[in-house]
């Protein structure tokens, strides 16, 4: 997985990028947890999601937001971090101008950043949100949410209690044309310490199902 450095809004950003051998492969961008609480692109859940996309034939990137690792700049309360994510997306799209689809996956704070990016970039075709901090941030901006996705919660999460995520899922599922695949992992806390494989399997199952459905719809046209 080659190391890449690319221009961000507040200096260079450090990432790891896997380029698929498939022509016009879909893209995936993976976002890490909160930088002030030890979140980096090498976080276990972030890495597990990255590897899952790689396994499925995607061109995929994970990166350190501003002020993390070798990325320049400093933490900006979420606003600058959304701009960093957009810069990472720009870089991937520049390298892959004919990509067949675009997915965004985020864990914890990364899920918040990912959903913000979803509202700004209409070309995003699917999303994964693991333990989105629904009790810490207002997700009311997801109105209307442009597409369905996969949301994962742990039933023993002490930082983001499962009912807060369920409330968000229920709200999204009332929107026209939006269907959220909601999965709750028994015994999982916020760090998903023993559940990285389960997260990876859920991602592969959801993404595989959606992409197969899309391919069948195209074939039926």
UniProtKB/TrEMBL annotation:
Identify the SUPFAM superfamilies for this entry. alpha/beta-Hydrolases
Q: Where is this region: Disordered?
A: 1-20
Q: Pfam families this protein is in? A: Peptidase_S15, Peptidase_S9
Q: Which top-level group of life is the source organism from?
A: Bacteria
Here the segments flagged for biased composition (Basic and acidic residues) are 11-20
Q: Name one GO biological process term.
A: proteolysis
Which ranges carry the Peptidase S9 prolyl oligopeptidase catalytic domain? 150-204
Sorted alphabetically, which keywords does the UniProt record give? Hydrolase
Q: Kindly list the GO molecular function terms attached to this UniProt entry.
A: serine-type peptidase activity
Q: Indicate the segments forming the Xaa-Pro dipeptidyl-peptidase-like domain, all copies.
A: 25-138
Protein name as annotated: Alpha/beta hydrolase
* Native source organism of the sequence: Gluconacetobacter asukensis
């Amino acid at each position: 997985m080659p190391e890449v450095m690319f221009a961000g809004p507040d200096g260079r950003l450090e990432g790891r990028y896997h380029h698929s051998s498939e022509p016009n492969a879909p893209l995936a961008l993976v976002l890490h947890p909160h930088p002030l609480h030890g979140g980096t692109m090498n976080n276990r859940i972030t890495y597990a999601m990255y590897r899952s996309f790689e396994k499925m034939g995607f061109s995929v990137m994970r990166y350190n937001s501003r002020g993390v690792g070798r990325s320049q700049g400093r933490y900006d309360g979420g606003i600058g971090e959304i701009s960093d994510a957009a810069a990472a997306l720009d870089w991937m799209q520049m390298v892959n101008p004919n990509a067949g689809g675009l997915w965004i996956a985020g864990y914890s704070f990364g899920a918040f950043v990912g959903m913000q990016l979803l509202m700004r970039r209409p070309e995003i075709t699917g999303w994964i949100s693991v333990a989105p901090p629904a009790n810490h941030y207002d997700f009311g901006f997801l109105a209307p949410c442009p597409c369905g996705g996969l949301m994962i919660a742990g039933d023993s999460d002490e930082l983001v209690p499962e009912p807060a995520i369920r409330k968000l899922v229920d709200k999204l599922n009332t929107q026209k044309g939006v269907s959220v695949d909601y999965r709750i992992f028994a015994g999982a806390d916020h760090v998903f310490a023993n559940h990285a494989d389960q997260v990876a399997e859920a991602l592969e199952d959801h993404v595989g199902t959606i992409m197969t459905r899309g391919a069948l719809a195209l074939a039926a046209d």
